[in-house]
Design goal:
With 482 residues, the chain is of the alpha+beta class. It has 13 helices and 16 strands. Strand 3 and strand 4 (65-66) form a beta hairpin.
Length: 482
């Protein structure tokens, strides 16, 4: 029922009154045709009666509810529950098939009745085209899908805006008779007080007004139903599968990059350990306190002691400034010690007592060869091999003085490690993965500091070469644009 209904808008030449003080009442069982010229306000009237538009004046009562007392969500729920609407412009969802467009109102109401949906489509002659998208249907076929969609919910009230305008002459009567159940027809009911003059062919079924049943409990519109219907449609189409494949590929690529970054980081740590000669180390200008070595052994860590100092070596009348490195039997903990020629094969361990490994530059400067003897601190050592590579360079890319590798035991009583010798002492430790990740190693460092009388400088595998540490950190850090 509409009372004093008006609708006007502002135009370039002033206010345009589309509807003005309209009175209308429609009763159960009636069929009403609104006839008028194009632009007379028929579509506006239907939109106001269905709650699709707001009136400028007056009020509309629909199925016992005043529309002006309801918000937009409540009006939508009322339309879904009680109304059917055939739009002049069809308003079919382009990504849904004809069958899915017809089933959409039932889906939104939480109902699933495939048989009823198919029956509605067959009633308008489109059963065989139920899986076609709207863009593959003609205008008349789209109009018939809209008619079937309006009737599928069996609404109490049906609004049809020129429902047969796009149908050819052969389908106009047939579709209307097939889709709509028979309705009683009568002349204008006197209680309606319609202000328009009665058109000659206008129909009005006039049953007396009876009490309307109370509206059923409000059922919320389910957005999930629409989402499920659209997802099912996309899965059957050719647009969603490539997208899902691209997403899966992207996730796999991100996982692969992450795994690669982890492996690169592990390789950098291993590379740092090789350059350091161990997982962690302490260094100082005095011998490392025994507490550090005791703590390492208590924790089950492998350890090696190293002392390094410059000295001048002589052979006959030749001399050379060399870098002497004395190690114990556990050397090296990490990396490879490589020799070329002589009695030792590559890779090698620490030289035996009484034996030395010398770089080729040193041998050339002194005119020596593997098997000859060299004097160090008043003691003659046999040259057991040519030193090619050693692991614990500690970032020293350029060694100006040639290296001589000897055993710590051979320095005893030599006087080379006295006061002012400029010797550098180191203790390196190595263990399992936990040590390398900083767990036990950090504990070893803290525990040793608490018992040692001095606290030498500590170094670890990760910062052995700062460039590799920065590269590993950058590789593990997510991209800022992701």
């Amino acid at each position: 029922m509409a009372s004093g209904l008006g609708k006007w808008v502002k135009g370039p030449e002033g206010e345009i009154r589309i509807l003005d003080r309209l009175e209308l009442a429609v009763f159960p069982g009636e069929t009403v045709a609104v006839v008028g010229a194009s632009g007379s306000g028929k579509t506006t009237l239907l939109a106001l009666l269905a709650g699709l538009d707001q009136p400028s004046a007056g009020r509309v009562e629909l199925c016992g509810r005043r529309l002006d007392t309801l918000d937009e969500e409540q009006r939508a729920a009322l339309r879904l529950r009680e109304l059917g609407f055939v739009f002049q412009a069809f308003h079919l969802l382009p990504h849904l098939s004809a069958l899915e467009n017809v089933a959409l109102p039932l889906e939104l109401r939480g109902e699933r009745d495939p048989a009823r949906v198919l029956e509605a489509l067959e009633a308008v002659g489109l059963g065989e085209r139920r899986h076609h998208l709207p863009r593959t249907l003609s205008g008349g076929e789209q109009q018939r899908v809209a008619i079937a969609r309006a009737f599928v919910t069996r609404p109490r009230l049906l609004f049809a805006d020129e429902p047969t305008g796009n149908l050819d002459r052969a389908h106009r009567g047939a579709d209307r008779r097939a889709a709509a159940p028979p309705q009683p027809r009568a002349w204008h009911h006197p209680a309606a007080r319609h202000p328009r003059p009665r058109a000659g062919r206008a129909l009005r079924a006039g049953a007396p007004a009876r009490g309307r049943p109370a509206p059923s409990r409000r059922r919320a519109v389910s957005a999930l139903a629409l989402a499920r219907l659209g997802l099912a449609r996309e899965l059957r189409g050719d647009g969603l599968l490539p997208l899902l494949a691209a997403l899966a590929l992207g996730v796999a690529a991100m996982g692969a990059v992450r795994l690669l970054a982890q492996r690169i980081d592990a390789a950098f740590v291993a590379d740092g350990a090789a350059w350091l000669g161990g997982d962690l180390g302490v260094a100082g200008r005095t011998p490392v306190a025994p507490a550090w070595l005791d703590e390492a052994r208590r924790r089950g860590l492998a350890a090696t002691r190293i002392v390094q100092f410059p000295t001048v070596l002589f052979h006959g009348e030749r001399s050379v400034l060399a870098e002497v490195k004395a190690v114990d039997e556990a050397y090296p903990l990490r990396g490879r010690l490589s020799l070329a020629g002589g009695v030792a094969a590559a890779p090698a361990r620490a030289p035996p007592p009484g034996t030395a490994y010398a770089e080729a530059r040193l041998l050339e400067a002194l005119g020596l060869a593997p098997g000859d003897r060299i004097e160090l601190g008043g003691r003659a050592l046999a040259i057991g091999g040519v030193l090619v590579a050693e692991p614990d360079l500690g970032g020293e890319l350029f060694q100006l003085a040639p290296r001589l590798l000897v055993r710590l035991e051979d320095l005893a009583g030599s006087g080379l490690l006295g006061p002012g010798s400029r010797a550098a002492w180191r203790l390196l430790v190595a263990g399992d993965g936990e040590v390398r990740s900083g767990g036990s190693a950090s504990g070893w460092s803290r525990g040793s500091r608490s018992t040692a009388c001095s606290a030498p400088r500590t170094s670890s595998a990760s910062p052995a070469r700062p460039s590799t540490a920065r590269a590993a950190s950058s590789a593990s850090r997510p991209c800022s644009r992701c």
